[in-house]
Write a structure and sequence with these properties.
A: 439 residues; alpha+beta; Rieske Iron-sulfur Protein; Naphthalene 1,2-dioxygenase Alpha Subunit, Chain A, domain 1; 9-stranded antiparallel beta sheet; globular; B: 169 residues; Nuclear Transport Factor 2, Chain: A; 3 helices; binds FE2/S2 (inorganic) cluster; binds fe (ii) ion
């Protein structure tokens, strides 16, 4: 596999177009793992996954298998999930609770703070066994930090702080957390893990794309249009039908929404919905109950403010896409240049009516379900893109929609001239190039 | 098709009848006779592919599929849409049903619970995949004959990283 010299990277990623190699070249993929996933802050998960001492979960940071633990003193740790002896994967469970982690090969045992507690037949390391054992604790991930319960880590020892990295995107997490009447979230309800034979960037280039729904999702839009209208009384199928229909919104709706971008490749879709097209109808009793609970906690004015944020997907580059209105979070894991898996989580808002979470799950099943009417078409198209980009007869991927019309906005954001601007993809690639060419 | 058929009580469902229905269901799916397949389900039927192995509730935990009869109907309709990208062409399948056990449902003499093993071979666009599932049908004798009141498909790899599933199990 060949590394691509830095000058050529700049040739591949131009302001309004990129070369197909950034999606298909295995050498570039390795560079992405080293320089982008090896540097950026990546979301690992949420504190509710490790509430109590000894709780843990495993995940990936690019190529690195990672173990995240809650230690007895309450602190959170992230380690490379690999035994420091001869390299076995240490913890092979997705999640659980443990007093310590014992390696399957020779039984080396590590505490939840990563320190090596025990090795068999210690005499083999004498003299100096104590020092040796001190040295061979689990290798921690270089930096970890949290924002409002979201656990991030970076494999690089230096770089911007988490708050600098998030910038204005922090407000999307605020939006998610503030919606909980008791100010707390819980990840629960299972994890969809949908995989596709395509590059990891394709999913992040899709989630703020307002053109594709009318084409990719035409079939689910049509069948939902043929179904009875959702409404009062709310029926079990209504959430699915609303969401499928919404993808078929007319062009002028997509043009009028907002696409904002920030430094480091992030972006969000806003001004998206302010009526009952998507949420269970605003006059729905469950929503009314929920609203009343927010008002009881925060008063009318603050409630209006909280519910007045109308963001759809927010992308924190390069591994997160989430949405507060239906409490969905997606973590993108690149597996190979042409293979990606997306882990999808649902959140329960503490203090919200129970039914609201069931609605969240009903929504998740439609939008993120491995067999959903909607997602299956996205996955199919990612694979077709990957196949198309394998063609050598044409090199460039065009990203010029709205190029030149971006405008500077508040909080150091830039906004696309229209809701369907490809500004967010251009912005992702600007960050991509900065990561890949930085020393 | 959505006409509600009142249950017929007091007639035990035999293992032979259960076999016949499950085989017929597999036959209809594999021949792409989806309207006939839909007609096997009662109007209040559910079709469920849980995400987790011991999942008890389809809406406290996400489900790969949790459809009522109306949503199931939309799946079948999607097959006929011009831009059904993941379904054009539709996967060709073999549903192999075996290990059928039939048990009378407690307190519902016109119903039976049927456990079976299901192996599905799916072929589409140059790729063949195999799925295995432990399936539970709830069958009900109605005036339309023996129908499916619920189907729960426990995919053995439901918790794994899965590529899109755009066919019916
Ligand atoms: S490899 Fe882990 S104890 Fe030897
Ligand atoms: Fe989509």
């Amino acid at each position: 596999m060949q590394m691509v010299p830095q000058e050529s990277l700049a040739m591949l990623v131009q302001q309004d177009r990129v070369h197909r190699n950034v999606y298909v070249d295995p050498g570039i993929f390795e560079m992405e793992m080293d320089r982008l996933f090896g540097r950026a802050w990546l979301l690992l998960g949420h504190v509710s996954q490790i509430r109590n001492a000894g709780d843990y979960f495993t995940t990936r940071m690019g190529r690195e298998p990672v173990l995240v633990t809650r230690h007895t003193d309450g602190s959170t740790y992230a380690f490379v999930n690999r035994c420091t002896h001869r390299g076995s994967l240490l913890c092979h469970q997705a999640k659980g609770s443990a007093k310590s982690f014992s390696c399957p090969y020779h039984g080396w045992t590590f505490d939840t703070d990563g320190s090596l507690q025990w090795v068999p037949t210690r005499s083999g390391y004498e003299p100096g066994a104590a020092a040796k054992i001190r040295e061979l604790g689990l290798r921690p991930v270089a930096r970890t930090d949290q924002y409002r319960g979201f656990i991030f880590a970076s494999l690089a020892a230096t770089g911007p702080s988490l708050l600098e990295f998030l910038g204005h995107m922090a407000s999307s997490f605020d939006d998610l957390v503030d919606r909980a009447p008791e100010g707390e979230l819980e990840i629960t309800g299972g994890v969809f893990k949908h995989a596709y034979n395509g590059n990891w960037k394709l999913v992040l280039e899709n989630h703020l794309d307002g053109i594709h729904p009318n084409y990719v999702h035409a079939s689910s839009v049509n069948v939902a249009r043929g179904a009875p209208d959702p409404g009062s009384p709310e029926r079990e199928s209504d959430i699915a039908i609303r969401q499928m229909r919404q993808n078929g919104a007319p062009e002028k709706v997509w043009e009028s929404i907002g696409i904002w971008t920030t430094a480091h490749g992030h972006g969000y879709m806003g001004d998206y919905h302010n009526d009952s097209r998507l949420v269970v109808g605003l006059d729905n009793p469950v929503f009314q109950d929920y609203r009343a609970r927010l008002v009881a906690k925060h008063g009318e004015e603050r409630t209006r403010e909280i519910l007045g944020v109308t963001r759809w997907n927010s992308i924190v580059y390069p591994n997160v896409s989430f949405m507060s209105q239906f409490r969905q979070l997606r973590i993108v894991h690149p597996l190979a240049v042409d293979r990606t898996v997306v882990y999808t989580y649902s959140f329960k808002l503490k203090g919200a009516p129970e039914q609201m979470f069931r609605d969240t799950i009903a929504f998740a099943n439609v939008v993120n379900g491995t067999a959903s009417w909607v997602l299956t078409d996205d996955l199919e198209v990612y694979e077709r893109i990957q196949r198309g980009l394998g063609a050598t007869g044409a090199d460039w991927v065009d990203l010029s929609r709205g190029f030149g019309n971006d405008v500077a906005d508040t909080h150091d954001t830039r906004r696309g001239g229209t809701g369907t601007s490809e500004i967010f993809v251009r912005n992702q690639f600007a960050a991509w190039l900065a990561y890949l060419t930085a020393e | 098709m959505t006409m509600s058929a009142p249950p017929v009580s007091g007639t035990t469902i035999t293992i032979t009848e259960a076999h016949q229905l499950l085989y017929r269901e597999a036959f209809l799916l594999d021949r792409h006779r989806f309207d006939d397949w839909l007609a096997l389900f009662t109007p209040d039927a559910t079709y469920w592919i849980p995400l987790e192995e011991n999942q008890a509730d389809p809406l406290e935990t996400s489900s790969i599929v949790y459809d009522n009869r109306e949503l199931l109907g939309l799946r079948v309709k999607q097959y006929r849409e011009a831009r059904a990208h993941a379904r054009l062409p539709l996967a060709r399948t073999v549903h192999q049903v075996s290990n059928v056990l039939c048990q009378e449902a407690k307190g519902a003499p016109n119903e039976a619970t049927v456990a079976s093993a299901l192996i599905v071979i799916e072929y589409r666009q140059g790729r063949q995949r195999t799925f295995g599932a432990l399936v539970e049908h709830r069958l009900r004798r109605t005036h339309l004959g023996l129908q499916i009141a619920a189907k729960r498909i426990g995919l053995v790899n439901s918790e794994s990283e899965l590529d899109g599933i755009a066919f019916l199990l």
